Amino acid sequence: MIKVLFVCHGNICRSPMAEFIFKDMVRKMGIEKDFHIESKATSYEEIGNGVYPPVKRILKNMGIDTKGKEACRTEKADYQKFDFIIGMDGMNIRNMLRIYGADPEGKICKLLKFAGSDADVSDPWYTGEFNKTKDDVINGLNGFIKYLKEKDMIK
After folding, report:
1. In the CATH hierarchy, which fold is given to the domain comprising 2-150?
2. Per-domain boundaries in the chain
3. pLDDT digits (tens, 9 = 90+) for 75-94
4. Would you please indicate which residues are annotated as catalytic (active-site) residues?
5. Sign of the CA dihedral 129, 146, 51, 80?
């Protein structure tokens, strides 16, 4: 089983968007049983809050339900629990390294790395550009699927 953790600052916009779109992608590919997928925050600010309403609407329009999702914070033990720990921006990466202590196994990276870019997935909480964030997330996830196929981790 491939264990994937998506991480952003508050776990109400970008990381749950990545979590639920990726769950939908692998379900449509018929390989959801091969994955364990979660998302978490690096901060405590939104803990217990649901997915931010504009993100919820975008996902609902894609036929994706986020019912029951509440923001939670990543912890040091998550480093050993997951195979891939994917942050949305450089600040997330720095905060994850602070929480986990290091990245000796090379599990941590930015999502858009899989799309061949070092760019950040911009935070729609600040930009208001939720559709651009969705497009970036999908681009990164498509690259991640391609990476997993190239590494013969999925068919």
Report:
1. Rossmann fold (3.40.50)
2. 2-150
3. 999 999 999 999 999 999 99
4. 8, 14, 123
5. negative
